[in-house]
Amino acid sequence: MVEAVNRNEENGVRADARIDVGIDETLNLNDAVIVALGCNDKGVWPSNEAVLEASLARFRSEGVDVLARSSWWRSMAWPDPQDPPFLNGVVIVRTEHDPHALMATLGRIEDAFGRERSTRNAPRTLDLDLVAYGRLSGDLDGLILPHPRAADRLFVMGPVAQIAPEWVHPVNGQTAANLAQTASVGRDARPIRAEPGQAD
Ligand SMILES: Nc1nc2c(c(=O)[nH]1)N=C(CO)CN2
Known about the structure:
6-stranded antiparallel beta sheet, alpha+beta, 11 strands, binds 2-amino-6-hydroxymethyl-7,8-dihydro-3H-pteridin-4-one
């Protein structure tokens, strides 16, 4: 593994930045493993939301526990707004998988939802990206952490800011709340409901 650095309490990370993830349990945001989900082609599923919900149901059986989840956010496809609109969201997970094993697991879940790897940015049934793995940063044998484009995408940082506004980006030192303000890609992204799981 190449220079994977675990930098605690640098870059202005607050050691006590935590979110509630269950009864008597809090998560130190410094350790957050964050996965982004996206869908703009429902395939055989009734809706994009159904794809994303079904994929989350799959996480646990793959050794990935969802600790916190955002709402689903809708946005025009970037860079080509002629493509079908996206539904996106993020989850904070707990897993024993190391970053590479987690990537392989996410790839298996994508495959189970019939994602075809064709051209870059082509419509996809399910796209799962590893946004961050704790404070790891750098190039881990070809896996770049945190995800190099996540910070500039409102359809990623908006959902992160929803569940963990105080999360600090391991490289640029900005909070999710700040990044959601400054992200330049997908500025039209909005949650489809006020709260995850709430009726329309
Ligand atoms: N709105 C939106 N546009 C995209 C998205 C996405 O998740 N949402 N993902 C892409 C490939 O990573 C390309 N474009």
